Amino acid sequence: MALNVGPDFKQRWLNVPEAVRQTFIDDLGRICDVLKPESNTQQWLEMDQKQQALSFERIESAYAARKAELIEEARIRKQQALERALEAKRAAEKAYAEKLKLDELRQYAEQTQTLALIRQTIDRDTLTYTSRYHKNPESAPFNFAKGLSVSDNQMLSELESVRLRLELEAETQIEQALSAFRTKLQAAAQEEIEYILKNSNFSDQAPKS
User: Which of 27, 129, 156, 163 is at 20 to 30 A from 104, Cα to Cα?
Assistant: First the structure.
């Protein structure tokens, strides 16, 4: 009589735990013993009942251990997937923060350049205006513009006040831009913390066999 092990025997045999395969081999060896002419059938049946009980225990324990291994492997794969997702998220946030930083630096450079141009314009206008005003000769018989003249000190004081106001306004705009940038970074950090707390929900207890 030929032994029919069914289709895909090799794949099914290799997929079972090692302890289960060894148990099957031991059972087959025990069956071969009873086929020998000198074997005592009654003694073999009594011994076979005990061996079958042990075989069932070994098979059940092996499959329970294999199930625990599969659960742990799945947990590790899920944890690794989460870590990869977090790394990708951190990389994206870092790139976004770097982009914001570069944009803020560009705006700061533009504002600094604008402030420098304003300062140059003020200095140039100051020289232009002051060159128009000069002291009249003392020998002049008449000074009709005396009551309407503006002193050089007064003119310079007004121009200096305008320059200071423009500088303060530019510094205020720069500070507002930096404050907005810090707020964006804090929001991004808070979002990452909430994401980690939401997804890191694995149990530290080992799976029960």
Answer: 163
